[in-house]
């Protein structure tokens, strides 16, 4: 088995759906630990079913570069499945496979394997899965470490100092592999942020005004927990002699949410009279 620190909160949610005829979709931003959730589920299956045939596709590895579209994935799986009923398919970063939902639908209909996948783009996953597989998948959102998980990962005791570390560095799981050095951790976090912003937001959403996007993110970070709207941001920018249409700002906000870099909270849904 691989060496990792378990995240039982998520494992307990997924376990009841093992061997059920429904696609398990694990979502969340890059480097949040989705791949390790897949590994943990895989190890649980192998422990309970030694003869299990695990088919693993990781689109971040060069070995799987040739799997570009749904037919590539389908043909690859057909070559790997065995005659018994214990075939399990794990696909990491499935949004990198064009029209992946067509393959998943076919595999599900043919009862070829038990399917698990991860994805880092909410828009792509929700729209494509909802179109082709409505009612046939279940989503498990993965978030950064809670304070309790942070203590476990970093082998810390609950203390004021530990809480300060958590509030300073956040809950990205990989941090536990680094020394608790401010410069080292912030350098790592900057690289994660840049990857998400450029690959999952700018490239995927074809955003041209990257400079404004970066300034928008900085503004949102400075106003974390505050109420705001795209219209209010547009008005503020106009007061600073920056003319960005409200719809453009709204599109950028949606793109940030789709990459899980930003989380949207609708106050009106909780307080319709407010």
TrEMBL record:
Pfam families: AAA_14. It comes from the Bacteria. Residues 23-151 form the AAA domain. PANTHER family: ATPASE. This is AAA domain-containing protein. The lineage of its organism: Bacteria, Pseudomonadati, Bacteroidota, Bacteroidia, Bacteroidales.
């Amino acid at each position: 088995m691989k060496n990792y620190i378990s995240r039982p909160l998520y494992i307990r949610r997924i376990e009841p759906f093992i061997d059920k005829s429904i696609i398990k979709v694990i979502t969340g931003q890059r480097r949040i630990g989705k791949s390790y959730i897949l590994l943990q589920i895989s190890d649980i299956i192998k422990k309970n079913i030694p003869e299990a045939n695990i088919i693993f596709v990781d689109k971040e590895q060069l070995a799987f570069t040739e799997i570009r579209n749904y037919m590539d994935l389908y043909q690859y799986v057909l070559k790997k499945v065995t005659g018994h009923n214990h075939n399990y398919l794990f696909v990491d970063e499935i949004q990198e496979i064009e029209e992946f939902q067509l393959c998943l639908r076919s595999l599900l209909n043919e009862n070829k394997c038990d399917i698990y996948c991860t994805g880092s783009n909410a828009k792509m996953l929700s729209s494509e899965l909802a179109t082709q597989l409505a009612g046939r998948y279940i989503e498990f959102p993965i978030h950064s470490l809670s304070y309790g998980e942070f203590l476990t990962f970093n082998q810390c005791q609950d203390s004021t100092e530990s809480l300060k570390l958590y509030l300073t560095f956040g809950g990205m799981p990989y941090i536990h592999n680094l020394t608790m050095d401010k410069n080292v951790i912030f350098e790592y976090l900057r690289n994660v942020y840049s990857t998400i912003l450029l690959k999952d937001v700018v490239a995927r959403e074809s955003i041209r005004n990257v400079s404004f996007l970066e300034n928008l993110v900085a503004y949102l970070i400075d106003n974390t927990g505050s109420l705001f709207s795209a219209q209010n941001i547009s008005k503020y920018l106009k007061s600073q002699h920056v003319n960005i249409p409200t719809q453009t700002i709204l599109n950028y906000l949606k793109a940030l949410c789709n990459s899980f870099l930003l989380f949207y909270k609708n106050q009106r849904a909780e307080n319709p009279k407010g």
